[in-house]
Specification:
Blueprint: H1 2-6, H2 9-31, E1 33-40, E2 44-49, E3 55-71, E4 78-90, E5 96-104, E6 109-114, E7 120-131, E8 137-144, H3 148-173, H4 178-200, H5 214-240, H6 248-277, H7 285-298, H8 312-337
Antiparallel strand pairs: 1-8, 2-3, 3-4, 4-5, 6-7, 7-8
């Protein structure tokens, strides 16, 4: 297996990125820190409190100047929550400097604390998580992760770059394959129609957590993957009942791009989740089942190690049954299981 990876730099980069993200997540779990900073208007504090009552002393202080709720045209439905703050730093010279900032849903504020010798040190992130009912107070999540977040984001960048280059190279190989481009076109039109109908044509205003620049990209890429998986199922149904089924066409045409789209969509969603909720992964039912779907469709790509997938009838039967994971991820979670993503 290692020899095959070494002969394919993009596949090696893909697996290296996954490993790097796992290492970053482990470092964050053991060395990252987070706590809640509750402020009233006019209040200045440099102490945040963790879930266990532990106090996190910050190398800066935060003052809440104003808290505001943006609403839609009806004046009632909430659009966004914004904390207008001032951050105070104490420099090495003893001079106190101030910086005005805003913290809103999906728009965290990152603070680079001034360390010894005037160097930029560990980064803190401030996220909007709650507010007081009288609109004169706010609660910010303070995150301190000096090492894990950098390693994790390196993994993200390598992964997305690997997915992009693998997809472009694969499209070049399939440039004369009409079935491939037809299915890709169907997936693109399906994803575009879904995004337009659900996000742009809906009369229901988006809740604050959904008002993110990641929304359209995340949803469109995920739906592209699901559409390709549906096309794979239809092709496998046809192949399974033929006299001499083969696996070459279906496997090489659609499986790899479907897995690449789903992988990119999941990890773009993870970046979005970190901006919204302060964590990349929370084992929400939708997240969990999306991961299950990714694993289910990734297995046939490893046919050199999993020899069962070399048998055409087993392969096509597997692809047909694999669509159940997509059905559970989309319909099952939305209408039966629930969770943070039940609106999607």
């Amino acid at each position: 297996m290692m020899k095959r990876l070494l002969h394919n730099p993009l596949t090696l980069a893909f697996h290296f990125a996954l490993t790097l993200m796992l290492i970053g997540a482990i470092i964050t779990h053991y060395y990252g820190d987070s706590a809640m900073l509750s402020l009233r208007v006019g209040e200045n504090s440099n102490m945040a409190v963790g879930e266990d009552g532990r106090v996190m002393d910050l190398p800066f202080s935060v003052k809440l100047n104003k808290f505001s709720v943006e609403t839609y045209e009806d004046g009632k439905t909430h659009k966004n929550y914004i904390s207008h703050i001032t951050i105070f730093f104490l420099e090495n010279s003893g001079k106190k400097t101030a910086h005005d900032a805003k913290v809103a849903m999906n728009y965290p504020y990152h603070v680079a604390s001034i360390m010894g010798f005037g160097c930029i040190g560990a980064e803190y992130s401030l996220l909007q998580v709650s507010y007081d009912s009288d609109l004169n107070g706010t609660t910010l999540l303070v995150q301190h992760d000096p090492w894990g977040i950098g390693i994790t984001f390196c993994g993200y960048y390598i992964l997305l770059a690997a997915c992009l280059f693998m997809f472009v190279r694969y499209c070049h190989k399939q440039r004369r394959n009409k079935t491939y481009w037809t299915c890709l076109g169907i997936a693109f039109l399906g994803a575009s129609s879904y995004v337009i109908s659900k996000l742009f044509s809906s009369s229901t205003p988006l809740m604050p957590v959904l008002r993110s620049p990641y929304l359209v990209v995340h949803v469109a890429i995920i739906i592209m993957a699901y559409m390709l998986m549906i096309c794979m199922m239809i092709i496998s149904l046809k192949a399974l009942f033929s006299k001499s089924p083969t696996i070459g066409g279906n496997r090489t045409n659609l499986l790899l791009p479907a897995v690449l789209f789903l992988t990119a969509g999941i990890f773009i969603g993870a970046i979005w989740a970190n901006d919204s909720w302060g964590r990349y992964w929370g084992w929400d039912p939708k997240e969990t089942w999306a991961l299950v779907t990714l694993i289910v469709y990734s297995l046939p790509l490893h046919r050199h190690s999993l020899r069962l997938f070399r048998h055409p009838r087993f392969y096509h039967l597997y692809i047909i049954l694999a669509i159940l994971s997509v059905i559970i991820t989309y319909f099952g979670v939305n209408y039966l299981i629930g969770g943070l993503h039940s609106y999607a």
